[in-house]
């Protein structure tokens, strides 16, 4: 089955997801950047000069250099990468945790920029932009009917803090065009999606990546949950590809006692740097559970490994990605950068969880797909990791290195093995696109409802399930959903809640029958 990729992304301006995947697989020991300069004329520089001055045709030497750098880094390891200037800017914004813009979630619906939702208390919400509005013009620049690339759309809406932009929107409910002046502001890019109660004594915090603001966001959520009286905490690191190493370490410090080892690194020279917990932990004794899956990587694995190796909590889910390499970022004068692997990291017991990459980058990244094929996502006994070397935690539990972190409690993928693509479909942009179109067709259907009233209404109908099946077929996706009806209906209800209410309401619904969460609550 092949799903047309154009239906998957929803362009989310408020979260600026571009570049996160790239940054997410990487660990950063700190947030310093190192300027890479080389004034000597090496062979590569001379070759480029010869091409510029002597070659018979005009050639874009910048693209040649980028291609050459990519090929060089590909000989090293899968996580040493070159980032072109444009992508570097986008990744930097995502990892910084904010950007300056108008604060809207949008995607291109047919030929128009359609507003899914405004950022709460953001510039657009304050100016009166509403869900369903189409932005036709940004100042005098026409945005509809042009098939503008995403970066062009962003550049029209982003700008300097405090600067003003006049947008012309078409409001379907009023059937008229409206001009609205918006003052651009700083828009947070949240890395903590939710901090909510699962029950009266169990808190839940979802972390989507480790950015500069993640620890502060996490601490705010944890403080709120403690004030609500939690005695147990669930940290959800599923689909979290990582990010800044120091943020994961700071979060681990909240749970570990003074002088407990969190992580250590070893570089080419054999120099070892150890990081220990301090006395400042605010949740050192409560029950702790960490949820991971096959896409939990790097900084996520540092946090999970620190908890597992210190016998501090229970790791629940499926084997993590297996990335134990540390990168350092070095900038070039043109705004591009290279992220070069400079060390390996090790969990407190001394294990490296880096999976093999000797067969090349293609096989390395396809390894995750092989977990479907060998049945690992459905049966713990099918996990293929080295059984040596063995490591022992302080309480005598045996753990293994090489190939990710194996959870203490295994939870299989929720869908049937023959329908594994359903799980990824439900987390793709196409679900949000469908829900937007349903709401856009009739925005008054849920108007004035409380969240409880909304849940009763959405749970009591198969209308949207049947419509979603037809929507997939119309868009060339041949996937039958009946075998996973309950799961699909849950994700549909959650996406409606996200677009009608907020992100926390999405998680309140999607977690209600979540297999990993149920495992935690049933085994406390």
UniProtKB/TrEMBL annotation:
It comes from Flavobacterium soyangense. The chain crosses the membrane at residues 7-28. InterPro entries: ClpP/crotonase-like_dom_sf, PDZ, PDZ_sf, Peptidase_S41A, Tail-specific_protease. GO terms for molecular function: endopeptidase activity; serine-type peptidase activity. GO terms for biological process: proteolysis; signal transduction. Belongs to the peptidase S41A family. Pfam families: PDZ_2 (PF13180), Peptidase_S41 (PF03572). CDD domains: cpPDZ_CPP-like, Peptidase_S41_CPP. Keywords: Hydrolase, Membrane, Protease, Serine protease, Transmembrane, Transmembrane helix. The keyword Transferase does not apply. This is PDZ domain-containing protein. Residues 175-356 form the Tail specific protease domain. GO terms for cellular component: outer membrane-bounded periplasmic space. The keyword Protease applies.
């Amino acid at each position: 089955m092949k799903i047309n990729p154009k239906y998957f992304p929803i362009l989310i301006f408020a979260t600026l997801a571009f570049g996160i995947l790239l940054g997410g697989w990487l660990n950063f020991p700190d947030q310093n950047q190192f300027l890479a300069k080389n004034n000597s004329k090496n062979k590569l520089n001379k070759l480029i000069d010869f091409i510029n001055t002597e070659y018979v045709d005009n050639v874009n030497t910048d693209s040649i250099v980028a291609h050459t750098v990519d090929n060089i880094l590909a000989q090293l390891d899968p996580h040493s990468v070159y980032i072109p200037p444009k992508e570097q800017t986008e990744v930097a914004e995502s990892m910084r945790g904010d950007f300056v813009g108008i604060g809207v979630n949008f995607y291109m619906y047919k030929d128009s920029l359609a507003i899914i939702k405004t950022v709460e208390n953001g510039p657009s919400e304050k100016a009166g932009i509403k869900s369903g509005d189409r932005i036709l013009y940004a100042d005098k620049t026409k945005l509809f009917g042009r098939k503008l690339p995403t970066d062009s759309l962003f550049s029209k809406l982003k700008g300097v803090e405090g600067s003003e932009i006049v947008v012309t929107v078409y409001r379907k409910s009023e059937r008229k065009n409206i001009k609205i002046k918006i003052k651009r502001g700083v828009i947070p890019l949240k890395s903590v999606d939710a901090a909510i109660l699962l029950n009266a004594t169990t808190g839940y915090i979802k972390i989507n990546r480790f950015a500069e603001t993640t620890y502060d966001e996490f601490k705010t959520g944890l403080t709120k949950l403690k004030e609500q009286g939690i005695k147990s905490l669930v940290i959800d690191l599923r689909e979290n590809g990582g990010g800044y190493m120091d943020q994961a370490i700071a979060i681990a410090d909240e749970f570990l006692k003074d002088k407990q080892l969190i992580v250590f690194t070893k570089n080419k020279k054999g120099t070892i740097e150890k990081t220990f917990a301090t006395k400042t932990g605010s949740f050192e004794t409560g029950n702790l559970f960490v949820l991971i899956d096959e896409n939990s990587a790097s900084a996520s694995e540092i946090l999970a490994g620190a908890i597992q190796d210190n016998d501090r909590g229970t790791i629940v889910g499926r084997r993590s990605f297996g990335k134990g390499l540390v990168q350092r970022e070095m900038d070039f004068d043109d705004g591009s950068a290279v992220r070069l692997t400079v060390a390996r990291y090790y969990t407190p017991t001394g294990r490296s969880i880096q999976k093999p990459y000797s067969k090349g980058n293609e096989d390395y990244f396809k390894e995750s797909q092989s977990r479907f094929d060998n049945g690992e996502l459905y049966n713990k006994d099918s996990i293929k990791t080295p059984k040596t070397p063995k490591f022992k935690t302080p309480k005598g539990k045996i753990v293994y290195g090489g190939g990710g972190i194996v959870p203490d409690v295994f939870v299989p993928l929720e869908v049937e093995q023959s329908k594994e693509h359903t799980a990824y479909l439900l987390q793709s942009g196409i679900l949000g696109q469908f829900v937007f179109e349903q709401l856009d067709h009739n925005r008054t259907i849920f108007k004035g409802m409380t969240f409880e009233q909304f849940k009763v209404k959405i749970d009591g109908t198969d209308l949207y399930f049947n419509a979603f099946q037809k929507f997939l077929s119309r868009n060339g996706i041949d996937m039958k959903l009946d075998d996973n009806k309950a799961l699909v209906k849950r994700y549909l209800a959650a996406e409606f809640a996200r677009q009608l209410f907020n992100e926390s309401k999405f998680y309140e619904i999607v977690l209600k029958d979540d297999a990993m969460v149920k495992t935690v609550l049933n085994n406390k």
